[in-house]
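Friendly challenge for the regulars: who can give me the structure tokens for this chain first? No prize, just bragging rights.
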Amino acid sequence: MAGLVYVLLFGAQGWLGPWLDRHDIQIVFAVPGIVLATIFVTFPFVARELIPLMLEQGRDDEEAALSLGASGLQTFLRVTLPNVRWGLLYGVLLCNARAMGEFGAVSVVSGHLRGLTNTMPLHVEILYNEYNFVAAFAVASLLGGLALVTLVLKTLVEARFQHHQRRNA
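First reply, four minutes later:
Bragging rights claimed.
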């Protein structure tokens, strides 16, 4: 559905399509569409990690920094970000894992243009449909290897995050 919404919004016949065309901006069937679709699909993984963490920590530290004269940016960089860095990193790793395997929305907005808008999951599909099973398996194995690396990183960050939470409790 996300891919379809992007096509209906940014496509040539979409709501913003004529304006984008007049300004020579291409979103659908180009890299920006892939990036937007991937962000839309994966962003909830970061939110799922950060929202409960930030609710648990409360606003006291930020309010104290603001009352002592810190700007909003200073408060974010020196108070909020350090407090949520492990949760943010964990969410980004989950996003990365999800983004590497994203197929649906990216398939719709990419146009399957070889060398331009082809992602690894889309390439596996193309190779498989061309009966090039060895190459499809090789690319899929590479994706599997990247998934294992992400899993190891996730485990390390999770252990560090839990250690940090215990230390601050």
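DSSP finds eight helices and no strands in the chain. Residues 90 and 155 are 9 Å apart (CA to CA). Your move, everyone else.
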